[in-house]
Structure formats: structure tokens, C-alpha cells
Write a structure and sequence with these properties.
This protein is of the alpha+beta class. It has three helices and three strands. 15% of the residues are buried.
Length: 82
């Protein structure tokens, strides 16, 4: 592996939209701690905008899968409380 290969990164951005800002905030707060160091996420109106960067495609897919799984569970939990 050359130093150029070591610096290669893969990235993706994803936007998750919710029915209202309150739902987006609740899901965002639910997954925020798990994101540290892996996902840069922010609230944008009724959506969560997330940016992921990893050293390999496999790592990116693993992080994306984890993020989507956690947001899905959080969304199900808050929808049952409504």
C-alpha cells in the first residue's frame, strides 16, 4: 500500500426525511451518541442530513448499515409513543 492508497477515502451523504421536525429531532437525539467518530449528522428542518467517510467501501457500508438500523429502531420507538 502506498501513502496515496492510505489516504484514499470513500464517502456518502444521506438525507432522512420525517413527517415533522419533532420526529426528526427525537430520532436525531436517539442516535447522536452512536454517531461520534463515524457519522457527521445534523438536523435540517424535518430531515437528518448525514455524511459518512471511511477508509474502505466495506467500512462505509458497515457504518451506513449501522446508522440506518439505529435510525429505523428509533423511528419505530417514537412512532409507538405518538
Amino acid at each position: 500500500m502506498t501513502s496515496r492508497d492510505a489516504m484514499s477515502k470513500v464517502s456518502c451523504s444521506i438525507r432522512l426525511e420525517f413527517p415533522n421536525r419533532e420526529s426528526a429531532e427525537k430520532v436525531f437525539r436517539s442516535v447522536e451518541l452512536d454517531n461520534a467518530g463515524y457519522v457527521q449528522a445534523r438536523l435540517d428542518g424535518v430531515a437528518i442530513q448525514a455524511d459518512i467517510e471511511a477508509s474502505s467501501l466495506n467500512s462505509l457500508l458497515h457504518t451506513l448499515d449501522d446508522f440506518l438500523s439505529c435510525t429505523s429502531v428509533a423511528e419505530k420507538v417514537i412512532s409507538k409513543g405518538s
